[in-house]
UniProtKB/TrEMBL annotation:
Residues 12-83 form the EthD domain. It comes from the Bacteria. This is EthD family reductase. Pfam families: EthD. It comes from Streptomyces ochraceiscleroticus.
């Protein structure tokens, strides 16, 4: 799998619960339609291990078969619609991409 990983923090004027409800609700409705999307995992962050890790609300991992499939999704009208919905929310995010390696299943 080739993943797009997004770590996000809510807009300052939003409550954590509102942001998670939006992310898993209205925003998810657009995300599900991305061409080539094979899997999507979302983690609601409810605590940080240490102070330097505080301030984040959730992580999304969007999985595709290949870098090319992700590139096609990012060039799609569906991605443009999802980006437009986010608009100028003023939340923070980190977005990174890479190949997945499963190291353990128990």
């Amino acid at each position: 799998m080739y993943n797009l990983v997004l770590l996000a923090a809510r807009p300052p004027e939003w409550a954590h619960e509102r942001f998670i409800d939006w992310w898993r609700g209205d925003h998810a409705e657009l995300t599900y339609r991305l061409p080539g999307l094979r899997a999507w995992r979302h983690t609601e962050i409810d605590q940080a291990l240490e102070p330097r890790s505080e301030g984040w609300d959730g992580i999304s991992v969007l999985s595709f078969d290949s870098p090319e499939d992700l590139k096609d999704a990012l060039a799609s009208p569906q991605w443009a619609e999802a980006v437009a919905q986010v608009g100028d929310m003023k939340g923070r995010r980190i977005a990174v991409m890479g190949h997945e390696a499963e190291l353990f299943t128990g």
